[in-house]
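Re-run with default settings, no changes from the original entry. Doing this only to confirm the output is reproducible before filing.
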Amino acid sequence: MGAQQLPEGDELRARAYLRALHARPLGHQEPTMSIPAPRRPVTPTRVIPAGAPLPARAPEPGEAPPWRTPPPPPPPIPTDPDPLPGPRGPEPRTVEVRHVHEILLTSPDPDPKPDPRWWEHAWEALVTWRMVAAILAALLPWTNGRSPVGIWAHTVHQARTEASIGAAYVIAGVALTAAWALDRRTGRAVPRFLFVTALLGALGVLDWFDPILVQTGVHR
């Protein structure tokens, strides 16, 4: 095949007219003509004047370009104006709190003592200085060689023969009761002496035949 001939001036002129009219010539070997798509406008981020050096590298993703001017700082937040001076409130007072701690030290109670028995009560009641003094004064023969107990025992025994047996028992019982009540009320040495004398001297009114007399009524 021979070399392809170049188009001449008239053919070039006709092609220019057809391209301007957007017409496709029949049997022509040029590529298919198409309507170009609309292009997006390019918004420049920086205008580099002539003669200025270009940046050394492109900014990384998320990095602000070095030629971008940083935004101005936000304006300060307005604060409330000072309140107008007014009457001052009461000054704060200091409150003092005192704590009083009371510590009580207690010890366990000792084991209670057992109650004393009846003979221990009797012994404590009898063995006192008043009782000892009353017994000595009642038994010692200091009245003309005779003791007060002996004199009282003879007196109630004589009442058996001069009055009667019942009257002798009444006299001895009344004297013993009166001496016991006086000693119970005062608790002194003289009433205790009288009580001991009446108690021991009352034995003189007894006779061994009295139980038989009470049971049978037979006199000696």
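The mean pLDDT is 76. The two ends are 204 Å apart (CA to CA).
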